[in-house]
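Why show two proteins at once? Because comparison is the fastest way to build intuition. When a single record is shown, students tend to memorize it. When two are placed side by side, the eye starts asking what differs. So, the first record is below.
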Amino acid sequence: MVSPVCVCVCVFLEEKKLRAGSGEIKLPRDRTKGQTAAREDQTRGPPVRGVSLRSALKEQLRMIHEKMEAKRIARIAVAEIRVLLAELEEEKEVAWAMKMKTLEAAEKKLREEREREESRMEAERVKKEKEEKERMEREAKEKAERERLEQAAREERERMERETIDKERMERERLARERERAAKEKEEKERLARENAVEERMAKESERMERERIAKERERIAKERERAEKEKQEKERMAKETAEKERLERERITKERERIAREKERAERERLANEKERMERERIAKEKARVTQEKELMERQRLARERALREKMEAERAAKERVDRERNAAQADDPRAGQLERKGNASQKNAAIAAQRTDRVGVSVARKGRSLGEEKTAVDRKDK
């Protein structure tokens, strides 16, 4: 597809060539001399009619027809350019609308996904809190049950210790009574020994039996002591087990705290990732706005250049039409034809000056637009 700018440039160059070629009607040298002589004769005497005048008129008429044909072609080209520009503008608007719809759909989808992710995370957090609460309640119940069992075991051990102490006390009292009885029996034996040898033998037998009983009693006491030692060792073992359980409980609490800290750290990382994603979306939105502003600025600059070019072409067309009217008026054999021709040349100069000014205005507008775009680009790069 041919660019509209290229078409505009071609039309402008064609118009410039036509203007340069139609600035002055050049007749053949002999015809020009004849026409000059005819004009001099007109100023000095009656008008001169002849072949030279007719040929000059025909030549001028042919050039007028060529100019009109060129103007018609230029108008057709300008109309086609306008239609093409309107179609391009409509295509740009349709493409921009489709792009904006796509972006809105993408943003909506991203927002829905983020909401689903937040809902899922909230449900997981509630579930974890519920499980953690149930676990802590279960551990509290188990701990209370262990403490109750330990209290019961401790009370049982204290009861057994009290019973052992009572038994030892009763045994000591019995041994004391036995010793007293033995002493009495010994005295009785000595008395009986003095009284009767038979009774002495019986006393010796009784004493032997008593010694055996005492030996048995001592053996029983030793067994009782051994049993007490074993109970003491059992108490120490249970104390060690209790200390080990407390150590394991402390380690479990420490691990639980570390797990909670890791979960908090993971939540913080997720929050930072979401924050980074939000900042990236804001940056993309700013970049889109900047690109849109730059496109609008370039479009305004292009429209300004086209408007300046149209104004220039309209000024040139008006100048040409004015020159043509003045020259047509000069053909009416008015004595003031030379003065009108000079005025036409002056109007052509004024039109050329106006066209140059319009060109300078278009160039300055384009330069300002480029400078503003470069400054915005530099500012965006600094922000990045």
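Second record. Ask yourself what differs from the first in the token line.
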Amino acid sequence: MGFTEVTDKEQLLGLAERIKQDFPQSCLMYNNLLLRARGFCSTRRFFIIEDSLDSYVILNQSNDQHSYFIPYCREYEVDQLMKALEETSLVNWRGDLLFGDIQTFLVNPIQALAQKMGVSLTEDRYYRFTYHPHLDTESLRIKPATHSVWVAHFNAAENY
């Protein structure tokens, strides 16, 4: 099982449309897919599982920093994502490594996989706020965010 790169505009737009139903958890990946598909951003690459073209597993890699990844999947696809991450040559488990914008249910599996690969990850937490105007009950021009999503960045440090 491995990843295959998605470069076709229509395929990128199709992926974005498919994960749109997972808002707010998919907002970042959705926006990155749209920016790439519409030609506004070329600093990221997108990969899907080559054996499962209809899955929701997406791996987003930085062109500038090849060790920076944003994985995305649905909860029932965690095992599939972990197997692909373990087998792919895209991830160098011996170099610098950063997994960003991790969905909560991916934290422990990614830590376990990294440990299996001989890597120790450190966790940095931050919060993202997503505004949903259709949920407003008052007529306000600017209102505080109505939803937060917990995500984590992981930095790898090799065990000695």
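One difference worth noting in the second protein: Residues 9-19 form the longest helix (11 residues).
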